[in-house]
Amino acid sequence: MMQVRPNLDYEGPKSHQHHRAFVFGFEYGFLKEKLDQKEAAKRANEQLGFVFDIGPNPWSKPATSSFGCKPSLVKMEYVSPEGLRLDGRRPMEMRQIRAEIGTVARADGSAVFEMGNTKVIAAVYGPREVQNRSQQISDQALVRCEYSMANFSTGDRMRKPKGDRRSTEISLVIRQTMEACILTHLMPRSQIDIFVQVLQADGGTRSACINAATLALADAGIPMRDIVTSCSAGYLNSTPLLDLNYIEDSAGGPDVTVGILPKLDKVTLLQMDAKLPLDIFENVMGLATEGCKAVANYIREVLLENTKQLEYRRGL
Amino acid sequence: MVGLSVGEKHFIQGGIAQDLRSDGRKRLTYRPIYVETGVIPQAHGSARIRLGATDVIASVKAELGKPSALQPDKGKIAIYVDCSPTAAPMFEGRGGEELSTELSVALQRCLLGSGIDPSSLVIVEGKVCWDLYIDGLVISSDGNLLDALGAAIKAALSNTGIPKVNVASETSGDEQPEVNISDEEFLQFDTSGIPVIVTLTKVGRHYIVDATSEEESQISSAISISINRKGHICGLTKRGGAGLDPSIILDMISVAKHVSEQLINKLDSEIAAAEANEEES
């Protein structure tokens, strides 16, 4: 068993979920009692096949962390020597995507988007009359967005589904991304509401939300410049990895999220955590962009299939 | 929802009076129910119910906790409901809080008293017990949320597998005992005792079951009754501003009992079919 080595550059947990690196990956997560950590570590070693040691850790924050060791400090294998990741994918392989349009009957447009275990529902209401007169814009539509996570979406039960800072930030990001591609000048003095609900979170929720919102907007018939697709990529064990899941995301390595307009070939969203040398960054961003294009192809197929169904039902 | 015109309101009320509702149903007929279990893999049990356009998901999660000092031989169960803004734009931000609270409290009242026995959740008396968190999420709302949530919780509980726990050693005093959670063995709940909720809505002089949201806008008053398989009433809530004559309430209760028999059978068969489907896939 390897010993934990201190990493003096370590800045602290990214989020409260950072310490619970394996919570989603395992059924019951780790208990807050220390007694079970050794048992849990043993199970982690058996299941994932890598070496992980928990010892007394003076750098951990006792109040928030559920176990004493920071995962990023340990030399873990996210990519095995044969080139397989933790869930059996190759580094350049995306998770399986699945999309469905029209799930919420009362909404003007809705869609469900799944990327691996991440499952997201988006519903669009609009264009409709602006509810709050003071926010009305005379020459454009007002685009609003809200992102919320279900109580059961993460491994640990979340207490506050909305209103926390991460949700506010992601709502803002999705709103700005979609606003850039909606032709808002065609619908002055009106309001378009995009609501995104995360049912299962396993990494890449931001990307799944944007993809779902695109499909929902298309289902609502709102004019757009192009579809927006998004995908994330990271860099662990000196390998660029496409479409990170929760375990890889919590590893503390860089996480690049890219959103593009595929036909116009323009980038509308670019976010990154942690640090990367510039040449590797170009590599990783290129990989994420390729992932976006693959998602775009799939989304186009789904939309075409949906239109065929509509034509069929109209008797054409 | 767009407001209804006077003509539409008359149409709905007239239809109900003639036992022919806008979607062709009779007054005491439920919409077709679709049940899917195991939709949330990381929860201990979950189910999704579709009642027409109403779509709700319920999930059950069990965590180890300490029983309260007042009831050391019982576990704890909590029910929370969240209305997602995807169901209606007015649920955005804190708009859905009122409805969520109303539904949570009504469900707790109807299901917790007699549904699950909290003493079955205790592991070491006074020290360790299971805390059961039941979360409901309303994805799409077209009336009759309470019935749908009640059915979803029943389905989720029948899908729930609580892992078997071995208490490692005897400890004395205030120490927390060591507990090992087993991976393989699960305890299934016995859900035959869990009641279903039947909401009877009074429109004009007649009662209807399973109202759509258009019909719900016309209610004068509604009663939600939870009835179990034996026909015992486990909880009752009256909503709506209009007063009801006590004889009418008794009449509504007997109608609800009659409806609940069919509903329980239908629900049980759908849940069994859904679980069979889940095992195959």
UniProtKB/TrEMBL annotation, chain A:
GO-annotated molecular function: RNA binding
GO cellular component, one term: nuclear exosome (RNase complex)
Lineage: Eukaryota, Viridiplantae, Streptophyta, Embryophyta, Tracheophyta
InterPro entries, sorted: ExoRNase_PH_dom1, ExoRNase_PH_dom2, ExoRNase_PH_dom2_sf, PNPase/RNase_PH_dom_sf, Ribosomal_Su5_D2-typ_SF, RNase_PH
Protein name, as recorded: 3'-5'-exoribonuclease family protein isoform 1
Name of a matching Pfam family: RNase_PH_C
Keywords of this entry: Cytoplasm, Exosome
Exoribonuclease phosphorolytic domain mapped to chain residues: 93-223, 226-290
Taxonomy, superkingdom: Eukaryota
Source organism of the structure: Theobroma cacao
Localization of this protein: Cytoplasm; Nucleus, Nucleolus
UniProt similarity note: Belongs to the RNase PH family.
Record carries keyword Cytoplasm: yes
One GO biological process term: nuclear mRNA surveillance
Keyword Protein biosynthesis: no
UniProtKB/TrEMBL annotation, chain B:
CDD domains: RNase_PH_RRP42
Subcellular location as annotated: Cytoplasm; Nucleus, Nucleolus
Keyword Protein transport: no
GO cellular component: cytoplasm; exosome (RNase complex); nucleolus
InterPro entries associated with the record: ExoRNase_PH_dom1, ExoRNase_PH_dom2, ExoRNase_PH_dom2_sf, Exosome_comp_Rrp42_subfam, PNPase/RNase_PH_dom_sf, Ribosomal_Su5_D2-typ_SF
SUPFAM superfamilies: Ribonuclease PH domain 2-like, Ribosomal protein S5 domain 2-like
Gene3D superfamilies according to UniProt: GHMP Kinase, N-terminal domain (3.30.230.70)
Superkingdom, natural source: Eukaryota
Chain ranges of the Exoribonuclease phosphorolytic domain: 30-163, 193-257
Family, per entry: Belongs to the RNase PH family.
Protein's name according to its UniProt entry: Ribosomal RNA-processing protein 42
UniProt keyword list: Cytoplasm, Exosome
Coiled coil residues, start to end: none
Organism of this sequence: Theobroma cacao
